[in-house]
Amino acid sequence: MTVQADFIKWEQEAKQCDIAALHHIINDCREARDAMRGWNPDKEAYYADQYWTFSDELRRRTLAVCD
Known about the structure:
This protein is mainly alpha-helical. It has one domain. The protein has helices at residues 3-16, 19-36, 41-66. α1 (3-16) runs parallel beside α3 (41-66) and α2 runs antiparallel to α3 (41-66). The longest helix has 26 residues, at 41-66. The mean pLDDT is 94.
């Protein structure tokens, strides 16, 4: 799977999650990213990208509620 395909898949998945699931996935990605630091830079970047994609969906929803 390409990086672009990963982002598309994650964005679609994130749109289907409720807020609690988004928080859970974001925390899992943060822990996985941190666990890979210094061991596997490719996986560290993979989990960082996933973290930011799901975080961005949470940010969009938070902004929508505040408007």
